[in-house]
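look at this:
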Amino acid sequence: MLMKLQSMPKGIVNIKNEEELNKLSQEFNDKIIVIDFWAVWCSPCKIFAPIFEKIQQEYNQDYIFAKINVDENPIVAQRYGISSIPTTLFVKAGYALRKLVGVVNYTTLKQILEKFKDN
């Protein structure tokens, strides 16, 4: 258990392709990965980015945080049915647990992460 905590990513992981996501999911199949699907041209994504960074700083011991650019990774976006951005997806062992579409505030994200911790 301690080894897993030490090897967990400290920052937000930028997923470049489906293989990287699969490897992360397999390596940390007991952890929830919180994924921000975004694009460079997306204004709401720019609004959401600092919220995602703040929540990551607070919960980086319990969850893995990742970002996926939908323009660079359309296959991953399609795999999880991402049709609007930003979308925040909570994944465990490759399975989607919950999906939030649009800009989500810090309090809402915190409540969801706390509920996952309690289960």
